[in-house]
């Protein structure tokens, strides 16, 4: 273990470890992406699930489990270190593709997605926390842009490749053998080469002044309250993140079925399933660092409203070209929001309790998968897929307007005299 004299903050000083963690998070995203094209069609064609609510139970199970795991990932990372939590995440992910390959019934698929939620909650949360640790305060938006870009470009690439594999060889097992390779490689890299980063958070915390009793942070319950509703910027990030992933759960579970009803081929469905996260992933390379320069709030508000317009486009379209245009806009809106919300949490939360704040934020954000699966499934069963998409578009509009009204600018470069919030006082209103 390195001494404190050897620890430095910043992307340049930690380039090798940061690059390794980007690679690891790409593998985390690839494991998730193996389901995006194939699993909705597997539900319909092999397990003959006619009701949308039943077909989306795997997303509900994934989202609920991942949300809860995110919460504990932050606490465990603070208590035991980042690396053990990352390795545990990969251990939970290894059985997932095997269970899907061998599944004799839909219950196996749901159970596999419970494990996938545990895996993603531990592994993705920890790579986020570790990159925030390494980057320090100056380039936090860039760090989150790189992290999320790697993950969602891998989601996109894997969704495209698994569409090709399914078209060529069938829905099982080939697409999930790729997922198994991702999990094995991720476990190996994380175990052998990733180094602990908790010391970097301690170093950053030592540079911030505050009341002595808060050097270890407020209680976990108080952090949950601050991040969920009491602190305006943290709460705004949590609600926007939840609606953002509600949208993603809808796209994951229902869009392939919507495209199939229009007669699109598996290859075309795979291309559309890949286009949205591809734009999302690439866009974050621009929006993350741009939020370091221009502020977080404009990207959050504009991104949520752009997603709303894109969803309305999905509800109205009926051709590959029109859906492709809507997918590009949805990806761009999501790219504006995703790294910026994580950077917002990093801006506001003190380093002593930042990992737990990230965990609470991701609890709400990934809870959106479960809410989206339940809401979209019920509305789709009652009124059809297009009605479900329209309802979610309206919710997304409301989320963007709420962020505009309540969120204040958190970027230290845009608020040069703002203090980091230590949890001991009420944050003043928007500046």
Automatic annotation (TrEMBL):
Keyword entries, A-Z: Cell membrane, Membrane, Transmembrane, Transmembrane helix, Transport
Gene Ontology molecular function: any one: transmembrane transporter activity
Annotated TM spans: 12-32, 52-73, 85-109, 149-167, 174-194, 250-278, 299-317, 323-342, 385-405
Organism: Micromonospora siamensis
Protein name: Predicted arabinose efflux permease, MFS family
This protein's GO CC annotations: plasma membrane
InterPro entries per the UniProt record, alphabetical: MFS, MFS_dom, MFS_trans_sf, MFS_Transporters, Sugar_transporter_CS
PANTHER family assigned: INTEGRAL MEMBRANE TRANSPORT PROTEIN, RESISTANCE PROTEIN MDTM, PUTATIVE-RELATED-RELATED
Subcellular location: Cell membrane
Gene3D superfamilies linked: MFS general substrate transporter like domains
Membrane topology: Multi-pass membrane protein
Pfam family, one: MFS_1
Location of the Major facilitator superfamily (MFS) profile domain: 18-411
């Amino acid at each position: 273990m390195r001494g404190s004299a050897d620890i430095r903050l910043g992307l340049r000083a930690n380039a090798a470890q940061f690059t390794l963690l980007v690679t690891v998070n790409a593998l985390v995203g690839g494991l998730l992406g193996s389901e995006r094209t194939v699993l909705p069609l597997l539900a319909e064609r092999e397990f003959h699930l006619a009701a949308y609510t039943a077909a989306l139970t795997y997303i509900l199970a994934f989202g609920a489990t991942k949300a809860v795991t995110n919460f504990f990932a932050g606490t465990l990372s603070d208590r035991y270190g980042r690396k053990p939590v990352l390795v545990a995440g990969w251990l939970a992910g290894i059985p997932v593709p095997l269970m899907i390959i061998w599944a004799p019934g839909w219950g196996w698929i749901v159970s596999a997605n419970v494990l996938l939620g545990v895996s993603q909650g531990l592994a993705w949360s920890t790579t986020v926390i570790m990159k925030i640790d390494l980057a320090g305060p100056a380039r936090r938006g860039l760090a989150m842009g790189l992290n999320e870009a790697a993950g969602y470009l891998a989601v996109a690439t894997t969704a495209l490749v698994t569409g090709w594999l399914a078209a060529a060889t069938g829905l099982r097992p080939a697409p999930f053998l790729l997922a198994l390779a991702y999990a094995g490689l991720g476990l190996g890299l994380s175990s052998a080469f990733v180094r602990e980063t908790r010391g970097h958070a301690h170093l950053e915390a030592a540079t911030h002044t505050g009341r002595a009793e808060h050097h270890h942070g407020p209680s976990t319950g108080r952090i949950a309250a601050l991040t969920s509703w009491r602190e305006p910027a943290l709460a705004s990030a949590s609600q926007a993140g939840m609606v953002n992933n509600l949208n993603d759960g809808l796209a994951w579970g229902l869009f392939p079925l919507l495209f199939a009803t229009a007669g699109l081929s598996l290859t075309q469905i795979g291309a559309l399933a890949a286009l949205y996260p591809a734009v999302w992933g690439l866009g974050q390379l621009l929006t993350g660092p741009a939020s370091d320069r221009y502020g977080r709030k404009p990207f959050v508000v504009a991104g949520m409203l752009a997603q709303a317009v894109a969803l309305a486009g999905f509800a109205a379209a009926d051709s590959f070209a029109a859906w492709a245009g809507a997918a590009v806009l949805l990806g761009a809106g999501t790219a504006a929001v995703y790294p910026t919300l994580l950077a917002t949490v990093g801006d506001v939360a003190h380093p002593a309790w930042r990992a737990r704040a990230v965990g609470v934020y991701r609890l709400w954000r990934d809870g959106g998968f479960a809410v989206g699966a339940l809401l979209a499934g019920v509305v789709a069963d009652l009124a059809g897929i297009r009605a479900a998409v329209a309802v979610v578009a309206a919710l997304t509009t409301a989320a963007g307007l709420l962020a505009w009204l309540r969120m204040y600018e958190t970027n230290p470069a845009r608020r040069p005299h703002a203090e980091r919030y230590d949890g001991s006082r009420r944050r003043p209103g928007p500046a």
